Amino acid sequence: MASSDTPQSRLLPQFPQSLWKHTTELPLFPRLQGETSVDVAIVGGGITGLTTAYLLMKEGLQVAVLEMGTLLHGTTGHTTAKITSQHGLIYDELTGHFGEAQAKLYYEANEEALGFMRSLAQEHQIDCSMTEEAAYLFAESDQELKKLEKEWKAYQKLGLPGEWLETVPLPMAVKGAIKLPGQARFHPLHYLKFMIEELQKGGAAIYEHTMVDAKVEKVNGRLKLQTEQGASITCNYAVSASHFPFYDGGAMYFSRLHAERSYVTAIQPETSFEGGMYISCGNPKHSLRAAEWEGKTLVLVGGEGHKTGKSDCTISRYEALEQYGASLFGAKSIPFRWSAQDLFTLDRVPYIGQATNDDPHILIATGFAKWGMSSGTLAALMLRDRIMKRDNRYEDLYTPQRFKADPGIKTFIVQNAEVAKDLVAGKVGLVHRKAEELANDEGAVVKHLGKRAGAYKDHQGRLYLVDTTCTHMGCEVDWNEGERSWDCPCHGSRFNYKGEVIEGPATKPLTPLSQTQDKA
Questions:
Q1: CA angle 467-310-405, nearest 5°?
Q2: pTM of the model
Q3: 260: buried, middle or exposed (CB in 10 Å: 19+, 13-18, 0-12)?
Q4: Nearest to 458 by CA among 7, 1, 16, 5
Q5: In the structure, how many helices (H) and strands (E) does the chain have?
Q6: How many other C-beta atoms can be found within 10 angstroms of the C-beta atom of residue 307?
Q7: Which of 116, 177, 196, 392 has its CB 3.0 to 4.6 Å from that of 165, i.e. a possible disulfide?
Q8: How far is 121 from 127, CA to CA, in rounded Å?
């Protein structure tokens, strides 16, 4: 019997693997042990954490990076790696909710991040395939065209250097498009490997497999972070760059953020790709950009996003992207496929700055949506300025303390109503399948010893059983067949098939279950 987890396409790889990770060898680092002290402790080893550490080290501060897993294994290692200020249909919305001045500031902030990244790569001759491209936002239907025309009016009001087009350099008919010149694509891990090497040379501390506890203590006027393994680090500033904030402090970030997954297939096309970076206006979203691999040009076809834990068949998302890409360029092969998880704020603008009102020394950066390359770099620049006590003109726009009545309150209510619904649905849903019915390399929610459980059977037939109750707030996780993970629909926590944490806000693993009834 074939496993339902196996792609039906003859081209899709059986297992997900990121092009960036496959083509980058990174050093390994130890777990934090005992007690240590630094100026700034940075929790999270992605683009935000590493860039922040690099910038602060250049300022002469002693820094430490603490990563729950391994460096660049999270969203940064699974991005489409566009560096752009064109974030879909964004400027019309920002103009309406924040005003023209703040909307223009959002554009300028992302352009500043792009400029920093481009300059750094040029100055240090980083071999990261930094390539200038135009970005295109296109409409394929009359309904999408109306939205795009409103976006174009916002571009004109704000004086953004866009261009309206009736066609795009793709083999497809569009109703209209907005072209934004001077954007970029790159290899994110080759770029960040340079920073890792610089941090090593500069004596910065880097720790992997180090889970930081959510509780932050004050000791003699300094912050003390504890790890789940019993180690500790004392610092003047703590930065949460851990995708989902490791520290909440009563700010309820779990209710002010929601998680979405999206997918990428790397297609070797049969026909030429003319260049550019593209994203559609409609749903499901589709994204296109080129990448180089072993002397070949691949087209990264991305999109098919959904709220984490809300897709019955994630393999079908990859298959849809394969079909979309093949319809445009044909497909000789698909050497890679992968997915990423992104966090969205209530108003689509990231939270960057002071985590809570009462402690200026605990800072966060989160909620980058699908634009983490520019937003993560911007966050590092802003956090550096905050720690070095310099003014930053973007501070008020990105402050985590903001709460816009429109759309914030409406989004807040809708998101938390969905959480309540998911919590109830997961608890009362009927389960009929049994673990012994699973094929090798298949996972599912099953009925085990009369109760709901999560089961996965590996290639050798070994069975892994876990309690499906999420350790964050008690929602029920579901099986993600495309990634072989347990995903929570409430706040986006993810666990591997053994129950170990992949993505927060959960910090504790799913409870493993015995395959037989325990004897008294």
A1: 110
A2: 0.82
A3: middle
A4: 5
A5: 11, 26
A6: 18
A7: 177
A8: 8
